[in-house]
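Hi there, hope your week has been kind to you so far. Please have a think about how the structure follows from the sequence. I've dropped the whole record in just underneath, so have a look:

_____
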Amino acid sequence: MTTHAGVTEALADPRIQKNRKYWKAFNAGEVPPDWPLMSWIINENMLSQDGETHTRLRKLISKAFTPRRVELMRDDIVGIVERLLDDLAEAVESGGGVADFKEIVAMPLPLTVISELFGVEVAIRSEMHDLVSTFFDQSTTPEQALQSFTRLWEVLTRLVAEKRAQPGDDLTSGLIASRDDQDKLTEDELIWALVLFISAGYETTMNLIPNVVRALIQHPDQLQLLLDGRAEWADATEEVLRWDSPGEYVPMRYTTEDMELAGVRIPQGEALLMGYGPTGRDKERYGETADVFDITREDTSHLSFSHGRHYCLGANLARMEVNELVPRLFERFPKIRIAVDDADLEPMPSIIVSGVKALPVRVD
């Protein structure tokens, strides 16, 4: 599904659910085990739950992921940003004026933030990055995916054990302590929650940041509006989320009965692939200028963080990271530009996320 109206309707319709038990083809054994999106189907986290189970998990997890806790991260995020911009300056100097912005800034920023938020020790962050990346890469083999998942589960199980023995001021400790009328997360629910938050909270933001920087460099008139104070940096972030969302497609949702959706008859038990990225350029919603990057447009609303009961809990954190980084980047490096032609930028090998594998930049 790729239209704004159709996806919005599907996200709000209670006859469309997230649990794979509703997918006829899967239950009939018609989906091969080496299907590239299998890891997105068999997970047991909040992303694949419905009804009371989803409500219970979201309520427990939300207690540890409050806006206040996220806001308390702001000063830390600013400090991380400043250090990474120092790293970029050093890399540019040693690299003859060119450095990979994604590797030096866009990757370590969300990785560091999410790691510190959940209390992940520095020694295993690089490995966690490699493990998480396999789930978004469509070239990953089933064997590689299983090996990565097994290792990630081991890493997170050890993290939970350490935080249970010695709680800290982090979200892992908060999730362990979450209670609601004597209810709590089971061990598996806890690990699955960490898999979801750490992977989704890291990978999408890592691709959003280069998308924002790339869009502004390629549209100098829009960038000038920001530098002159005639537009807000937050508006630029929202326009990129609409125009070049890092979340392209998210598997899967399933019809629980025969129904009509966006004018199309769909049988019970069918799988629906939500195209969040394409909805942002839907001319039925945004008019003939839907393909135009314009930070001053009146309607920059989007579905990049989903809609309804599965709306992303980490949306405010992602926005904070981008909006603290990007103004400082262009203030410090006002003449930064992309070092290669746009056609030479290699896209991510994924239908899940949209972005580039590297973003080489030149700074005079």
Q: What stands out?
A: The chain has one domain: 4-362. The two ends are 44 Å apart (CA to CA). Strands lie at 16-17, 98-100, 250-255, 259-261, 264-266, 271-274, 337-338, 360-362. Residues 4-362 form a domain with the Cytochrome p450 fold (CATH 1.10.630.10).
